[in-house]
Amino acid sequence: MTALARVPRRGFSCRGRSAAVTGVLLLALCAGLAGGCRSVETRQLVTRPVRHSIRGDNLLVLSDFRLPRDHPVIEDLMVLRSQVHEELALPESRSDVVVYIFNNESEYRSFLETTYPGLPPRRAYFVGTPKELAVYTFWGERIQEDLRHEFTHGLLHASLGRVPLWIDEGLAEYFEVPGPRPGTVNTEYTQKLSALLANGWQPDLERLEQLDEFAQMQRVDYQEAWAWVHFALHSSPDTRQSLVDYLHDLPSTKKPTPLSQRLSQQVAAPEKRFLGWLSTLSGTRGFAMSADVETEARTAGRETVDAKAAADFPGPFPAFEPSGSTIQQAGFEQPAAD
Ligand SMILES: [Zn+2]
């Protein structure tokens, strides 16, 4: 049971869905079942990759392979860090975010299964503990997308400490979409939300604000959270300020006024405006030229991950070649191409 103390309650996030409490409960369950952990006991121990490091603002990337500092993946994270801080006017970070990139999927999975048994298989995880804000992933085809999402979680926690679940995921989804500036429309999400609306679904920010366990977050909740963040940040200066003020209150206020209340004080009938905004976005082909192609690629991959969520990672991924120049050829230029 001592291991339980090392598992954070507040800081488990993963691609698509997350599993904070689930991870903790499964760890306890596993410890109590004689047969359930045999595969873990016999598996070769994989430790965190630490041989090579790259430092940036609030960022420490660790790997067992040499990654050039000017690699597009690294440069993208450095730009993302600036974008997140500028867009949200975040307070100074309290700590760095440590990004562990394993050589391959197999090592990454072995590490997670032995360190945090019971977590659903995902391509990447953010794990926040009092000691460290860590991102775990492996060198695969979707590394840019995954790192953007998880690094955003890390940056938010580094600056704000506690971050309510819905906005943690909404902002990670928002900044995950690459583009010359934040706010590229996620056309997959606008299309799916529009289809849901046609079938009677209604947005409900107050309901989202009540969610405090990852297991409660359904895919539509991630989509709605993204849409509320996009609405708040782009529909008017007042709504943007409401969101920024809300974030600023998080570190110092135990129960900050929810964003839903702030929006109601700033604009009349925010849910009607939200629907109007969603309608506008649905007719938008993206803020950036690359948005459509990129989003379609992400859609295809995510559905694959969902379908296999209980079984295995999608594959195959490109083999890692331990030289800087080959990394670029083997591992990146995506995600638009996959
Ligand atoms: Zn997330």
Structure description:
This protein is an alpha/beta fold and 338 residues long. Helix content is 51%, strand content 9%. The chain has 15 helices and 6 strands. It has helices at residues 2-6, 20-32, 38-42, 72-88, 105-115, 143-160, 165-176, 187-198, 205-210, 219-234, 237-249, 259-266, 270-282, 291-307, 324-331; strands spanning 11-14, 52-56, 59-63, 97-102, 124-128, 133-138. A 6-stranded mixed sheet has the order 1-5-6-4-3-2, sandwiched between helices. Helix 7 packs across helix 10 and helix 8 packs across helix 10. The structure holds zinc ion (ZN). Residues 13, 18, 149, 153, 169, 172 line the site of zinc ion.
How many structural domains can be distinguished in the coordinates? 1
Strand content: 5-15%
Percent helix range:
40-55%
The shape, in one word, is globular
**Main sheet attributes: strand count, strand direction, barrel closure:** 6 strands, mixed
Distance between the termini: 42 Å
**Multimer state:** single chain
What is the residue-mean pLDDT, rounded to a whole number?
76
The radius of gyration computed from the alpha-carbon positions, rounded to a whole number of angstroms, is 20 Å
Structural descriptors:
338 residues; Neutral Protease, domain 2; globular; binds zinc ion
